[in-house]
Amino acid sequence: MSDNQRHAIVLGGSIAGLTAARALLDSFERVTVFDRDTLPDGPEPRRGVPQAEHAHGLLAHGRQVIEGLFPGIVDELAEHGAVPLDLQRDGVWVFGDRPAPRAVSGLAGLCVSRALLESVLRRRVAALPGVVVLDGHEATGLLFDGTRVTGATVRPAHGAEHEVHADLVVDATGRGNRGVTWLAALGFERPAEERIDAGTVYVSREYRRVPGREDFAAILNAPGGPARPYGGIALGVDGDRWMVTLLGVGAEQAPPTDPDEFLGFAAKLPDPRLHRLLAASEPLGDPVRLRLPGSVRRYYERMTRLPERFVSIGDAVCAFNPAYGQGMTVAVAQARALGLAARDGIDGLPRRFYARAGRIVDVPWDMSAGGDLAYPDVEGPRTRRMEMLNAYVARVQRATGVDAAVARRFLEVSNLIRPPQSLLTPAMIARVLLAQRASKAQSATSASSRATAAIGQ
């Protein structure tokens, strides 16, 4: 370890900041994490994470990365009530009009509340030698010597603003990040941005879960594009709870907050199990509404001039539409990439990291942006290639309800285990086309049976 890599500070103590602190400890003697909130001792929601009361997804790739950074953490989370699962065997996934066949897939997922995950991460990180986590400390600006960032100004909740010097500063301040403003104040250009707002509204409610009563640990009814711009998810999580989030794309499709109407909204979903689950379960509170700003990607990797020794990470780089469940996984993947970039030395670190981070963000951003832009009222750049891919993905999604192999491959892609190109192999295209024919045959048979039954009445 070189002498100039002694102290790193991380501004923000959420998922991205905590995992970044762990990753940097391989290259820095000390890491200090500052967060402006008063952090709870246990798994409780906090002001800086208003989305914590809603269902969160830790994709299979995210579970792999976080287990690599914190060995044994999945078992620890399970001891606190989180639910490990084989995604295809233990989940009900409805991507088209019918549920995917359930089968052993080897795709290891984890149903866990955001509050528990963050709490266990915080405890793990704070226990690491050389790491200090300070809550009630708000970052107010950067220190700069004309070439590189040398630290940050920090204001405690009950104290005077002061300077904290460091060899690296990490901006993990989330969706409301101030890194762009701080860079502008230092004379740097703002990174190019791409914004897409699908106008998605989320309404969530918790229910009591009776372990073992259901044969699934998760249900997802994905929105079905313009023809069905709404969906719903239920995750069995810690505290013997079902975390249920209903969502609608556009104000007209917003789920209701009235308890009875909330249940009625769930009845519209193509698979009836979510509605039946809610009807049979005890509510643990009232429905809670959330409307986050749209998705935004900041292209730091394209900047021609960057200050040395300062990087942004997580939602400060790319904030996704939560409907796709990508945010936490991309954040921990970026944290690992930051740790790997730091091992090559501190000089030139921002450019090396942003190159890695851009590649990490590319695929999930294309997936979520393409999905959002499938709705004609959503503003954003559309290309012929995107339209063709959206049309093919819609076919793949319908095929998941017929062919277990297609469903597994789609889950692998959506969980960032395989690249999207794996859906375009000749063998997979053939399976999608065959599934489409089988689906049409099943629909025709079903329609004929209904007609016969009607005539016989």
Radius of gyration: 23 Å
Mean pLDDT: 92
Question: In percent terms, what proportion of residues is strand?
Answer: 15-25%
Shape: globular
The class by helix and strand makeup works out as alpha/beta
Report the uncertain regions: 444-456
Straight-line N-to-C gap: 82 Å
Query: So how many helices?
Result: 13
How would you sum up the major sheet?
Answer: 6 strands, mixed
The count of DSSP E runs of length 2 or more, i.e. the number of strands, is 19
Q: How are the strands of the largest sheet arranged?
A: 4-13-14-15-12-16
Give helix % range.
25-40%
Keywords:
36% helix, five-stranded parallel β-sheet, alpha/beta, 19 strands, disordered C terminus, 13 helices
Give a nutshell description of this structure.
The protein is built from 13 helices and 19 strands.
Descriptive overview:
The structure is a single chain. With 457 residues, this protein is of the alpha/beta class. Helices cover 36% and strands 21% of the residues. The protein contains 13 helices and 19 strands. The protein has helices at residues 15-24, 60-69, 73-79, 87-90, 114-126, 179-185, 259-266, 273-280, 327-343, 349-372, 384-399, 404-414, 426-456, and strands at 7-11, 30-34, 83-86, 91-94, 108-111, 131-134, 137-144, 149-156, 162-165, 168-171, 192-196, 200-208, 218-221, 230-237, 241-249, 288-290, 295-299, 310-312, 318-319. Strands 4-13-14-15-12-16 form a six-stranded mixed β-sheet. It has a five-stranded parallel β-sheet with strand order 6-2-1-10-18. Strand 14 (230-237) and strand 15 form a beta hairpin. The longest helix has 31 residues, at 426-456. It starts with 6 loop residues before the first strand and ends with a helix. The model is unreliable at 444-456 (pLDDT under 50).
